[in-house]
Amino acid sequence: MGELNLILLGPPGAGKGTQAELLRSEFQIPHISTGDMLRQAVAEQSELGELASSFMDAGNLVPDEVIIGLLLEALARSDARDGFLLDGFPRTIPQAEALGADLGKVGRKLTGVLLIEAPDEEIVRRISGRRVNPASGRIYHVEYDPPKVEGIDDVDGTELVQREDDKPETIRNRLAVYHEQTAPLADYYDNLGLLHRFDGSAAPAEVFTHIRATIATLKLEETI
Ligand code: AP5
Question: What predicted TM-score, i.e. pTM, was given to this entire model?
Answer without folding.
Answer: 0.94
